[in-house]
Amino acid sequence: MLKVAKPNEFDLVFRLQIPYYESIVVTRDSNYPGNVFLDMTRVLELLEDDPREDHQSILKLLQLQLVDSQNFLVVDKLRSWLQSLFSQALNRIADRVEVDGIVSLLKYRTCGPAHTIFVEGELEYSVDFVPAIRLGVEQNVLLADQLIYFKRANLAYWDAIPKPLKTQTQTSSISFRSSFYSAERAMLKGKHENCRDAIKLMKKFRDVKTNLSNLKSYYIKTLFLWKLSYEPESYWQKPLTSILPDMFDDLVERLELGILPFFWDPELNMFDVLSRDQVLEMYQCVRKIPSALREAQVRQEHYCGLYVLRVFSHKKERSLQCCSKRISKRKRNDIQRLT
């Protein structure tokens, strides 16, 4: 029942299922771990032999707008096509929507693979629409160690995300990021609530620290995926006061090394997109947090518990003494339970 804050940002993955997608030839991108190439040659051949009108329309779309001369699906071509569809849809409704008599303005922009719509008005929030190409389990190019978790979830598909690469090479335009969102969801599903609550609290800590703006939610999720892979189920029965310092320890270690392996392809260092200064800034922010949390757990005193609450608060400038005087009896009891 932990509620960290009122949500105002949402992610929505929408999957594009190409006819005969099982015939897409998927190969690993040796230059970019975690990425794959999608060869559409066989799909195009099957579509050419399919007389159905809708399939012929898809064939023309692929040939004229989405693949290159060698029949590889192109990241930017797919993104541009989707961008045109979003723009057309918003133009048709005049960039606004009315629900129960309340009119909200809609603004649209793209960032990375996401197509983001901002809702402005009485209610304000944003939704990141992330496209994904559906692929079959037989096309999986995972390493053996990671494939175990995919099979345990008994999944029949995975995805390729059109995420642009910052480094341009001869093949970067056709390189898609592999995505295993459903497998990750299955790994976290059914875990003790302390696991889910620890993720929320680490995100809250990130949100209130201005020098942690580069700590993406997926980095935090990746820390937990690795933890889930080598800790027994009983570990998550521990109290949050034990789990949180451990997870911050893992974060500190990853930032100190400057390496966070992508869970599904450990050859990919997810911190490679950041500069050394950006990683160092995050390290300086979190390096003392594990010891502070453990101190609060051991000493069992009000001001230590209050320090834990202040770590996750915007109002850091108040002195502990002043805050202690103003804290209500109910909050004192909450702090005692926390510590």
List keywords for this structure.
alpha+beta, two-stranded antiparallel sheet, globular, disordered C terminus
How would you describe this protein?
- Helices cover 45% and strands 19% of the residues.
- The chain starts with 8 loop residues before the first strand and ends with a helix.
- Strands 1, 2, 3, 4, 5, 6, 7, 8 and 9 form a nine-stranded mixed beta sheet that branches. A two-stranded antiparallel sheet has the order 10-11.
- The relative contact order is 0.10.
- It has helices at 41-48, 53-66, 75-92, 144-152, 181-188, 193-207, 217-230, 240-257, 276-286, 289-299, 302-311, 320-326, 329-338; strands spanning 9-16, 25-28, 35-39, 96-99, 102-111, 114-120, 125-136, 157-161, 176-179, 261-262, 265-269.
- The chain is built from 13 helices and eleven strands.
- Strand 6 (114-120) and strand 7 (125-136) form a beta hairpin.
- With 339 residues, it is of the alpha+beta class.
